[in-house]
Amino acid sequence: MKTPLSMQVRRCSWAEGDSLLLAYHDEEWGVPEQNSRKLWEILMLEGFQAGLSWIIILRKREAFRKAFKNFDPELVARFRKADVARLLVDPGIVRSKAKIEATIGGARAYLAMRASGDDFSSFIWELVGGKPIQNSGPIPAKTPLSEELSKVLKKRGFKFVGPIIVYAWMQATGIVNDHSADCFRRGIIRKMGRQ
């Protein structure tokens, strides 16, 4: 028996058609993330996504976690040329030398911030005013804030953090709530942002 249209759950249109995307949308996307290491992991994965579709990264996410030692910045920062060579032949991940090296450099930048007394999560959330932004207009590819965050991250030594990548990361980590107005997750995410 078909569910009446009025009783069907409405989601963001990008989440339709793939069970992995649907689960990611319903359980992860847009949830305000406060954990520094997790924020860093997602930023690194967003960098790998550049030029590709997010579903490719989702399908490879566990292989990325294995290849990058569960995105432990202390371990990744120690990667050397042999590790880059190993990763370049790993079929489970996106084999881009520039993106691999950017992730290693990103681990070092993350640790440098921590060594200077800057907690990554606190640093990012302070830059956006401490609370998730509730976007009510059209969903942009980038914003003045993502452009500013991109510049700040680049100054700190991060790569593959252009304003479009940074905006996608802001959406994924709940820095901005971009669930569509009719999506069942919009109100749930808004409430999470108030806690």
What does the secondary structure layout of this molecule look like, with pairings?
Elements: H1 19-27, H2 36-49, H3 54-67, H4 73-76, H5 81-88, H6 97-115, H7 120-127, E1 133-134, H8 144-155, H9 163-172, E2 176-177, H10 184-194
Parallel strand pairs: 1-2
Helix pairs in contact: 2-3, 2-6, 2-9, 8-9
Characterization of this structure:
It is a single chain. With 195 residues, the chain is an all-alpha fold. 56% of the residues lie in helices and 2% in strands. The protein has one domain: Hypothetical protein, domain 2 (Endonuclease III, domain 1, Orthogonal Bundle), CATH 1.10.340.30. It has a two-stranded parallel sheet with strand order 1-2. Helix 2 crosses helix 9.
Task: Using brief descriptors, characterize the structure shown.
single chain; 195 residues; mainly alpha; 10 helices; disordered N terminus
| Average pLDDT level | 94
CATH superfamily: Hypothetical protein, domain 2
Largest sheet: number of strands, sense, barrel closure:
2 strands, parallel
CATH structural class: Mainly Alpha
Architecture (CATH level 2) name: Orthogonal Bundle
Helicity level: 55-70%
- Structural class by helix and strand composition: mainly alpha
Distance between the termini: 39 Å
* Overall geometric form: globular
What would the CATH topology be?
Answer: Endonuclease III, domain 1
